[in-house]
Design goal:
Length: 124
Amino acid sequence: MLNPMAVILVVEDEVFIRQNAEWTLEDLGHTTLLASDLGEALAHLSASVVIDALFVDMRLREMAGGGYDVANQAIALQPHLRVLYTSGTLLTADMSDRFVPGGQFLQKPYSPEQLGISMERLLN
């Protein structure tokens, strides 16, 4: 059973993928906050709301460090945050070495079921 009512920040620059993640997570009972880039993510992270998890694309356009930078800055603002990375690129050791401690990975393309299972593992 998923951790009920978690607040999850979804950072994804592809609108369709971002919306699908939002719908899936909300169908599971979570509150979602959406961002398409670092600036929008930081606005959510700097607000007074406590965010439980970050679901972030590792390869955000126009960001050299992509999701890694988002995750690192997110952890600096909310140290308890759990991070689930996603990418269409196959995961390598070089990539996972850059994860924040406890960071997990979900390969694109993923189904709503796979996202739900991965988020459950992350939150529990």
